[in-house]
Design a protein that fits this description.
Largest sheet of chain A: 3 strands, antiparallel
Order of helices and strands of chain A: HEEEHHH
Strand content of chain A: 15-25%
Number of helices of chain A: 4
Largest interface: A-B, 43 and 38 residues
Number of helices of chain B: 11
Shape of chain B: globular
Distance between the termini of chain B: 50 Å
Structural class of chain A: alpha+beta
Order of helices and strands of chain B: HEHHEHHEHHHEEEEEEEEEEEEEEEEHHH
Helix content of chain A: 40-55%
Distance between the termini of chain A: 53 Å
Shape of chain A: globular
Helix content of chain B: 25-40%
CATH architecture of chain A: Alpha-Beta Complex
Number of domains of chain A: 1
Largest sheet of chain B: 10 strands, mixed
Oligomer: heterodimer
Number of strands of chain B: 19
Structural class of chain B: alpha/beta
Radius of gyration of chain B: 22 Å
Chain lengths: 149, 441
């Protein structure tokens, strides 16, 4: 499927070159830093939560095209979602990138499907999932800070 | 076999010079002993060393005289890597992501095991499966084949050993990181890849993250044995830090109706010397090389392929692209040799150089040597220059200078990027864009 290949390639490149929500959030409710020392990828995720909903989400950082594109696509995907919806997306994303090659892709993942090919390249799985693990850490950290407020 | 092969042009230029102190036999003995290697391996290492001291190194590699080889050799035994054990908050997400890759590695290893595929470190395989290693080690690259190969053979410290049994198709492209015993990029890396009859496998070497090696020297040897009817695809993506000199000997021995594909992108390192070769030994064997090299400021890339047709109806193809900018240099090499008896050979060679400025240099060294008259060899080459005129023309069409250059360069690299998985092609494109981003004026 050369057309699909091209579409995936273009989407990944577009998001890595012009990442969406690539900024800090000054009044973030939670942030977390993810770092992969093996390849130098580093991402900081910012969250502004409003009554259990992700009102705003952003990231900054540097890394390979896959890690940056994945972070960008992630912020688009979870904005406006509830925490549990975001967690559900993380679970499904995790399933997609660790699936067996050729397994059908969960259509509810929408644009995130452009990273489905990663499951054929175990080395790249960590690049695609770094931002998601960082988001999870930020969401968990929020719970801690909530109790302090 | 090696005696029949043409001398590489790099050997011709300037002849050979003494390597200086170089590695010493005692250090190699201790090293071999510390790894519990069989005697035959020590003898091979010493033979390689002897050749190195007797013949010296090519004049272009005179910088090797300054290297403290004995200091680079570590005589400690092979150990497993321990994954970072720090538990600082910001490494946790990284570890979570890493664990997903690790889980995938374990799944692949399990699958390989069920197919009786052997995929492990060469050093460990040598200790546990010496007979299997002995059958294939140094069969594509003789330890004393040429000085750079001899340097690797004397000092090789690690790398992958891959054996794919007859008829087995490995679905997932294999990478060193998948091995249970993978630690790091070795300065004297040696990969031995064997595809038995009818087997099919893809190996990906390197990543696109900048790779630093403390010794600033990477002398590797890649041996591929493609048994009858097998298919091996070897993808190398090289992005070493700019201080690293990368000297690579790559050879494939290709038997009847087997095929080797060398796909090669070279973006990093200070000096690159890499001329993959295929010895087409069996009737109907085929080989393809598709490569791109980008050389910027302070970089020189000596890069290309050699195809040695030694049997009837063998086919080869070389597609080589060089891109130079900022004073970088490329030498694109191609050599096709048709040995006596190799009738009905077909070969296509296609090279092109793209020069982005006047201070950069692009050379090409094509060679053809024929001992059979019916060989069909097509050669096509070009040197292109990005001119102000062209950029002005593009600007008049609403394309910015930056965008125009980007399109031309990415288009040139496309011979490689469209032959590799999207998940890697995007990294090559990105690296090229980063490279162009800095200092296009």
């Amino acid at each position: 499927m050369p057309d699909l290949r091209e579409l995936y390639q273009d989407t990944i490149l577009d998001h890595s070159k012009r990442p969406r929500n690539f900024r800090e959030i000054a009044d973030a409710s939670a942030t977390a830093v993810g770092h992969n020392p093996l390849c130098g990828d580093r991402v900081t995720v910012y969250l502004r939560l409003d009554d259990g909903t992700i009102a705003d989400v952003s990231f900054v950082g540097q890394g390979c095209a896959i890690s940056k594109a994945s972070a960008s696509l992630m912020t688009d995907a979870v904005k406006g979602k509830s925490k549990s919806e975001a967690h559900g997306l993380f679970e499904r994303f995790h399933k997609m990138v660790t699936a067996r090659p050729g397994d059908p892709v969960d259509t509810s993942l929408g644009k995130l499907a452009v990273l489905s090919g990663v499951c054929e390249f175990p080395v790249r799985v960590k690049c695609a999932s770094l931002a998601w693990h960082t988001l999870e850490a930020a969401l968990e950290r929020k719970q801690e800070t909530v109790s302090l407020e | 076999m090696s005696a029949d092969a043409p001398r590489t042009a790099s050997e011709e230029a300037g002849g050979l010079i003494a390597i200086g102190p170089g590695p010493t036999p005692d250090v190699i003995r201790d090293f071999s002993k510390s790894r519990r290697e069989p005697d035959w391996m020590l003898r091979l290492r010493l033979r390689a060393l002897e050749r190195l001291h007797a013949d010296g190194v090519p004049a272009w590699a005179s910088f090797l005289r300054e290297v403290d080889f004995d200091g680079m050799v570590q005589t400690e035994p092979i150990r497993q890597t321990s994954i970072v054990e720090v538990r600082e908050p910001d490494v946790l997400p990284g570890l979570g992501a890493l664990e997903e890759s690790e889980a995938a590695y374990r799944a692949v290893r399990k699958e390989l095991e069920s197919q009786d595929v052997v995929f492990r470190g060469l050093a460990a395989a040598l200790v546990d499966q010496p007979d299997l290693v002995k059958t294939h080690f140094a069969k594509a690259i003789a330890v004393d084949d040429h000085p750079i190969a001899a340097l690797n053979a004397a000092l090789w410290s690690g790398g992958s050993f891959l054996y794919v049994p007859p008829g087995v198709h490995v679905e997932i492209p294999l990478q060193a990181e998948i091995r249970a015993d993978y630690a790091k990029v070795e300065p004297f890396e040696r990969n031995v890849i064997v595809a038995d009859r009818g087997a099919d496998v893809t190996y990906i070497e390197g990543c696109t993250a900048p790779v630093y090696t403390p010794d600033q020297l990477h002398v590797s040897a890649i041996e591929v044995i493609a048994m009858p009817g097998s298919h091996v695809r070897y993808i190398a993506l090289q992005n070493f830090a700019r201080e690293v000199d990368n000297l690579v000997t790559k050879r494939a021995v290709v038997h009847e109706a087997a095929a080797i594909e060398w796909i090669d992108a070279n973006l990093g390192s200070r000096r690159t010397w890499k001329i993959p070769r295929a010895d087409l030994l069996g009737p109907g064997a085929s080989a393809e090389f598709v490569g791109v090299a980008l050389a910027g400021k302070g970089q020189s890339e000596d890069f290309g392929a050699e195809m040695i047709h030694m049997a009837p109806r063998t086919r080869s193809r070389i597609v080589n692209r060089g891109i130079v900018r900022g004073g970088g240099r490329t030498t694109l090499r191609s050599a096709v040799r048709v040995a006596p008896g190799a009738t009905g050979v077909e070969s296509r060679v296609e090279w092109s150089s793209l020069m982005l400025d006047a201070e950069s240099r692009a050379e090409t060294v094509p060679a053809i040597e024929l001992d059979e008259a019916d060989a069909e060899i097509v050669q096509d080459g070009s040197v292109r220059k990005v001119s102000d005129e062209m950029l002005f023309y593009m600007a008049s069409r609403g394309v910015t200078k930056e965008e125009a250059l980007r399109m031309v360069v990415l288009g040139t690299a496309e011979v490689v990027t469209r032959r590799i998985p999207v998940e890697y092609a995007v990294e090559i494109d990105r690296l090229i864009e980063l490279e162009l981003g800095g200092g296009l004026g």
